Amino acid sequence: MLTPRQTEVLALIIQLYSRYHEPIGSKTLLNESYLEVSPATIRNDMATLEKVGLLSKAHTSSGRIPSTSGYRHYVAGLIEGQDSEATREGSEEDQAFNEIFSINQGDAYQQAQMAADLLVDSSHYTAFVFAQGQDSHSVEKFKFVSLDNHRVIGIILTDKGKVDNYIFQMPSDLSGQALADLADLLNSELKGLILEDAYQRLRFSIPLLTQRVIGYQYDFSALLEKSIHQLKNHAYWVTGKNNLFDLMDQEVRSQDLRYIFELVDGSKLLFDRLESLEAGIDIIFGLDIGPSIQSDLSIVTGTYIKDYRKVTIGLIGPSTMRYTRVIPLMQAMTKQLANT
């Protein structure tokens, strides 16, 4: 548990490091702040913050730099509205966004795209919009039909009338009775379950039961995987992608650069993380997405529900971005978009 002064020291180091991009020592901290304590007290606080993993000591100087854990601790306070500076910095842009979106034009996805463009103009970073349907479907009925050469087509009907199919290559021919028994098994075990839950059972527990009916274990989860993917109705759009070049370390390897651009173009790795976000503001740091992502990149996301869709706007920038400006701006913007 940090003391109030240690919390303030951490915030000051993060803000100064964002400004100067070099390790912050006790002398700089005292010169650039209103702290009325001795240099020894500041050094003790910095040592404590380093010990608990919120600061790291630079190899080339006695100064400290924020760690990823330090940034997480810092932005958590901003998201919870504990930083008065955040509210003050965001007030003017809050008013500007309110005026822009007071005219209700376009659907939720189009409005989010406009907001993302404004974020890019304001920050000179990269922004994206990710939208997915919120309609929930449950299993109504399974059916299997024999084709040829050991091929079987599986059909699923959801409670809302969605029909999908998938062709399975079976190890052996199955009789009409065996296929009927297989459908009865799946219907008795899975009817009424939402597709995501049914998918998990098809992968892990149903194969054990299929052995009783057809003589061997078989995984039919590909049928539901296809349905789930289609029903999510993903939409993804990115703007200001060239600004990523300004964020890259000059020594970044070409394969790492390619990996980052593939991620931003809309990779499954990014989608999986965005799908799990709940309404509100969140911060995703580079290493939280994958080991190949630069640790000094971060994504500020704002997620809201509009027109039966979950929409996430993300701003990709350096871990040193001015969170006191970006977070309240994202909060105000997503609140306005959700209510227009």
How much β-strand is present in the residues? 15-25%
H/E series: HHHEEHHHEEEEHHHHEHHEHEEH
Average pLDDT works out at 85
Report the sheet with the most strands, covering strand number, pairing sense and barrel closure.
5 strands, antiparallel
Rg, rounded, reads: 26 Å
Description of the structure:
By secondary structure, the chain is of the alpha+beta class. 49% of the residues lie in helices and 20% in strands. It has 14 helices and ten strands. Strands 7-3-10-9-8 form a five-stranded antiparallel β-sheet, sandwiched between helices. Strand 1 and strand 2 form a beta hairpin. Helix 7 packs antiparallel against helix 9. The longest helix has 17 residues. It is elongated, with a radius of gyration of 26 Å. The two termini are 41 Å apart.
Summarize the structure.
Helices cover 49% and strands 20% of the residues. The chain contains 14 helices and 10 strands. Mean pLDDT is 85; it is low at 82-90.
Question: Secondary-structure blueprint of this entry?
Answer:
Elements: H1 4-20, H2 26-31, H3 39-51, E1 55-57, E2 64-66, H4 68-79, H5 84-100, H6 108-123, E3 126-133, E4 139-146, E5 151-158, E6 163-169, H7 176-190, H8 195-204, H9 206-214, H10 221-232, E7 235-239, H11 254-264, H12 268-275, E8 280-285, H13 286-289, E9 297-306, E10 309-318, H14 323-339
Antiparallel strand pairs: 1-2, 3-7, 3-10, 4-5, 5-6, 8-9, 9-10
Helix pairs in contact: 1-3, 5-14, 6-14, 7-9, 8-10
Task: State the main characteristics.
340 residues, 5-stranded antiparallel beta sheet, elongated, alpha+beta, 20% strand
